[in-house]
Amino acid sequence: MLIGIDVGGTTTDAVLIRNGKVCSTAKVSTEPGNLLNTLLEALDTISRDVPPDQLKRVVFSTTVITNLIAEGKTDRVALLLIPGPGINPASYTFPDSFYLKGAMDYRGREIQPLDEAEIRKTVDLVRESGFSRAAIISKFGQRNPSYELRIEEIFRELYPDCKLELGHKVSGKLNFPRRIATAMLTSATRERYQEFVERIRKALEERNIRAPVYILKADGGTLPVEKSIELPVETIFSGPAASTIGALALTPEGQTSVVVDIGGTTTDLALILSGKPLLASKGAKLGGFLTHVRAFAVRSIAVGGDSIVRVKDSDAGTKLITVGPERVGPAYCMGGNETTPTDALKFLGLIEVGDAERASEAIKATASSLGKSETETASLIVDNVARTIADAVNGMFLEWEQEPAYRIWEVLQEKKARPENVVGVGGGAKGLIAEIAKKLNAKPVIPEYAEVGNAIGAAVARPTLTLNLHIDTEQEVYSVAEEGEIASLKATTLRNINKIRLNEAEALAAKLLRERAEKFGISEYAGEAEVVSSEVFNVVSGWYTSGRLFDVSMQIPAGLIPEWKRRVKA
What we know:
Blueprint: E1 2-7, E2 11-18, E3 21-29, H1 35-47, E4 57-62, H2 64-70, E5 78-82, E6 97-99, E7 103-104, E8 110-112, H3 116-128, E9 133-138, H4 146-158, E10 163-166, H5 167-170, H6 176-206, E11 213-216, E12 222-224, H7 225-228, H8 238-250, E13 257-262, E14 267-273, E15 276-277, E16 285-286, E17 289-290, E18 299-301, E19 309-313, E20 319-323, H9 341-347, H10 356-370, H11 374-400, H12 404-413, E21 421-425, H13 429-439, E22 443-445, H14 453-460, E23 465-472, E24 477-480, E25 485-488, H15 502-520, E26 530-541, E27 544-556
């Protein structure tokens, strides 16, 4: 038995899967101020009569981190940056930044030392400014973390209570601005995320559930909850990832589809190409910053089933309907105070939830302001939402088509193609997907259990893991970006360091990924790891090749656990 729970801003969805099939579902209101109660209600609804020891695993997906960042509710972080030469610090837009002298080259060799007097003054300023947390990021710090480690030592001496993040431990990938953003968001969200994890632990403890617990990451893979605390930003876009994996699980294998997850507050968009979710090559973007967080190529738009419907005057003097982006509570037909798209869907008989009399009352009030009939008003509201989402999908295609994986897919199709399906999940899907698909000239698909598609996606997602290996044979060292540490090549099984071949570098990457998978408790999937990219560059000194640089990227890709049994066929 498996449990999947998606904690959204409006509702929390839950599902219990037995022998690869859904056997119970739940949809409860999320209480931000009492999340423990929400989790207990969801658990009790789906598994009240199930012996806890029969549960194999529990997986959560959540928008907690995404919402914290989007709503500006994260903690302030002092950024101690060592950018070195080449870039004007004024070009960065990161808040609360303190720039320090010092520089490493791209291979981690010092070219300008730290100014320790400057560092001590900066630490004092950070403390006096009231910061309780700081992130220390040096350019090429992943190739040589000594600057970050030395600044950490000075912090421990002068300001021991400050909570610190080191850039090389958060991300070991190249691209300094993305590493800054990743470290900043990790520091800003860590404690709030720990509070969320504590609520999960408490809920499972109260129900005597001792099954392994996982969190769904932005790339559609699961991560043991204990490991997720180390990198809370990995759960950015966990919600959209859940809907994408849910759509993958609930539709025929190998299909190409746009996934539209219509929630109460937002609508999330994603893309599946020939059965494989499209990944963002540049990482997740949130709060205006690109990060090193591996994520599906998704977008959230501020329109959903509970968005406020208003009547406004146009420039031409006529009345027109606007929907969103604000949400102030549930739909009027669900006990709220404002007319919403959910009320229009209920009035038109397109959905089953909600009170029909209250929906009629809400639409009647809006129709009176608009000067049109109630049926025409409800239809205009639905059309407005469908058009907004369809326009967003078309806009998103301009971004999707720039992704390397999308371009490769198009070449394989031997023609310029668009997905044939629009798959709807979420509470608002049933009433809107047909109209959205019509505007996109595609086939509408609303699979069974679409209302809890996110929870199903969480429950049946298998683990993913990435590993980026960098080797410098001249310096006889290697580093794994995800580990943030530098090690000697002499400690490996490589025989002749000066004559390493690309296939040997790939074999070392595979070995290190297996070891990392064992550490994360997902070694059963290590055999499915694949090489994403591998490159080799010669290091030339004078007229001779003095060494080589290797970069190998491997992954255990996103997918479904073997226990899940598809109930649909192409």
